[in-house]
Amino acid sequence: MFYRKFHLFKVFQIFCITFLLGYQSGITDDQPSIQYLFPMPGSTHHPKETVIIVRFRNLAPDGIANFDDCIALRGGVSDSYPGATVISTDARTLIFKPDNDFQFGDSVTVRISPVKLGASHCCLDTTFHFIIGFESVSSMNEDVNTTWNASAAIATELQDPAVINGISIPSDFPWADITINDNPDPGYIFISHFDGSFYNIIMDNTGAPVWYRKTRAFGADFKVQSNGLITVRTLRGYSPAGFIAMDNTYTIVDTFYAPPGYTMNNHDILLLDNGHYLCIADDYRRMDLSEIVEGGHPDAYVKGNSVAEMDAGDNPVSIWRCWDYFTDITDAEHLDLTTRQIDYVHMNAVALDLDGNILISSRQLSEITKINRETGDIIWRLGGANSQFEWTNDTDGISYQHDIRALGEGTYTVFDNGNYHNPPYSRALEFVVDTSSGTATRIWEYRESDRFSRFGGNVQRLPNGNTLINWAMPEYPKPIEVRPDGSKAFEMDFVNPSDCYRIFRFPWEGRAASPYLSVESGIHWITLLYNKFGDPNVQYYRIYGGARPHPDEIMATSTNPFIHLSDLTNHSRYYFRVTAVDRQGMESAFSNEASIRIQFTEPGENLVSNGDFSQGHQDWTWNVSDAQASRVITDVGELHFQIEAAGTETWQIQAIQTNIPLIKDNVYRFEYDAYAASGRTVEFEVVRDGDPAINYSQMGSTWLGPSPQHFTHEFVMDHPSESEARIVLNAGGSEADVFIDNISLMEISSDAPGTTELRTQQFLLKQNCPNPFNPVTTIHYTIAERSEVTLSILNVRGELVSQPVNRIHTPGRYNQLLDASNLASGIYVFVLDVRSLQGRRLFRKSKKMTILK
User: Fold this and answer.
1) 14: left (phi > 0), else alpha (psi -120 to 50), else beta?
2) Range from 261-265, 493-497, 582-586 that averages highest in pLDDT
3) Half-sphere exposure of 648 (CA within 13 A, CB side)
4) Fold type of domain 2-131
5) Domain 174-506 class?
6) Whole-prediction pTM value?
7) Is 254 exposed, middle or buried (0-12, 13-18, 19+ CB in 10 A)?
8) Do 2-131 and 760-851 have matching folds?
């Protein structure tokens, strides 16, 4: 019954739209009518920030006599909604912006009644209504704030950073492994790295970086737009989260956001020639799915997607909502509709066809949709439950596809993930759509029998006629470049495997307007790395530093693109900026500002400040979300969580300390005293201060009883070094008060009892020692299970120069002597590859080393 009612309502919507848009008989071409209207008449669940959008046929905004009040709103909750009408930068579209948000649940009536200049009455008088959602459901997973800035890493040995083509390289930089380089397209590779460290990188065909930026969150969809600007998704430093654009000086020149009431989706953005941009926007609603599917949740959170065209002033000129056109949620055939949180459409690409209309890819529907950019009408649907085409020269069609792109004359490429092919496989697919015959014909594909990428991936047709394919998954090369005959011109992977959302090639010439600065911390020093990318005229750098933000005092100068600093006050925060001085003596603008808390430590030194709470709450922050609790220091100096309303999750009541340095491969001991008013669990962890919040300490829940108890946990830091991790004490989810004291976290000396056993429980690769060296060094690694092991030495171009180990190992710690007498001075990468013969575990790690002769 619900299904029939739903579709009767949809028929009514279509009738209203047909009437309002002027398609009914009697409307002539010279009479004003509505070409585009938002919200769709009769539609529901709109956000409280909704705007009204209208575009007329044969009536320009400057031809309306009553421009200021040609759009009027009334509501059932509020008699009127005053606001302002503005004209989009396209000079065709009107946007009415209410002065205040709508009321939840309100039914809003809109009257559109323009009067043409020189006329005495309305030339068009239209009334419709739409409904505001009953509550705000902003997101199932909120964006996490991250700064687009330098973040600090830790170096375990004092050594100069690698410098390639004049560019200094951070210690955790993701090295490329080029396995095929056979006359590929000369464009630079634009790639995002996600595996513990987040980098956006422009690199050449040798894998050498031309530009990079490290962030504290994944910067997706990193590419060059048709106007020459680089765009990238950013989660931090901007509110709300959106995309940023940089010019060829790597200066941020623009920002892009979703329409009011929506959140920006990270999958795709397209800048248009008229200054507008197309983006994917998300909105969420609560639905009773028990009336639609058996076992459906009566209060499900369902995520939907919209395509918005925004003008140069960030005003929406059109919003195409999935809810208005993809009306049957069961069309998502492979989606479990009985769960509480549902990603219904998962729109993952937006593009313009060569006729100017919009293309979208909807993963969960296995559908490519073409949309009339002027009216919002669907032109055609390919794939999934509502496909209007039969596939020819192909038996599988598309399944959970990604990255639709138009080549012209009805020809398209797509990365077909193939999740529900039988068996699953992925491919680059080129096909032609013929609307007259109702066919979609495969004309080219590239696949490898063992490759199945369950998410991500993309296909790009290059200027030289080759095709760039990104397989996305950590276990596969990314990218490859194939010729039309299927032969490979290029193949690359990261030395340390990582998934990659999209990868592109573009011709590019850039010269930074100012240096880019990052900072690394060692045991007794910090290292600043700075690069004025693409500028060959730098003579030297000026390093500004101090204890306050925006330092203007020169601390040092250097002709190298890095400097080591050691004469600094421990446990203090420093701020740094850098400028470049050219051969004519001209000084550049300041770099980004990087700050770091100096944490020079020795094994056995407590990394926690005020862990006994003798200084009250100093160095600890308090976070309570959807709960009620307070913190007090007891008479005996314990931190007391006084809990009134616990919330439903442990993280809803937190005490946090940041700026905790952890060095990769080192062993740490985490200790504390704790008890509770009555039996309950808590979560005390050492985690990454960013997205994703990696649990470095590898700890789960801890049971507390009413008797004080001392807890000790040891762990190996098996992620990239981190200078600003955090300790989190999670005490939500139970109303039993919690007491904690004497918190300590310290590095354990490598020869301390028990560390050998702890290290051999996992695979590890240590830095070679000594480094730099001439000509002999030792590489230390640990094997956790009986495994096939190879240790390879690569040059900076990713070419294999030596393989000192290739044999089966039993569990244990190994020291491999390396004699580099036959190798030239320079930077090399050593790679440990492990395939377990017991648990099918795979391990691959790399580190760089320097030969100095």
Assistant:
1) alpha
2) 582-586
3) 0
4) Immunoglobulin-like (2.60.40)
5) mainly beta
6) 0.80
7) middle
8) yes
